[in-house]
Amino acid sequence: MYLKVLKFILMNxxxxxxxxxxxxxxxxxxxxxxRQTKMTVLRPRTVYAGRWLLADDPQFCGRAVVVKQGE
Length: 71
Known about the structure:
InterPro entries: Beta/gamma_crystallin. By secondary structure, the chain is an alpha+beta fold. It contains one helix and three strands. It has one domain. A hairpin with a 7-residue loop joins strand 2 and strand 3.
């Protein structure tokens, strides 16, 4: 009788620990993924379009600045 109760408690405790671990794993991975996308957006980008460069420079308040590429 006591063995069945102990087994029942341990099995339910295992499922609870497993569920909490998976929930934490998925939550942290979602937060990390969101942080990575924000970090890539903050990086200045340079887009090459023919002989012109579109530079996303923070010096110009985030506006795209057109700079002629040296030939």
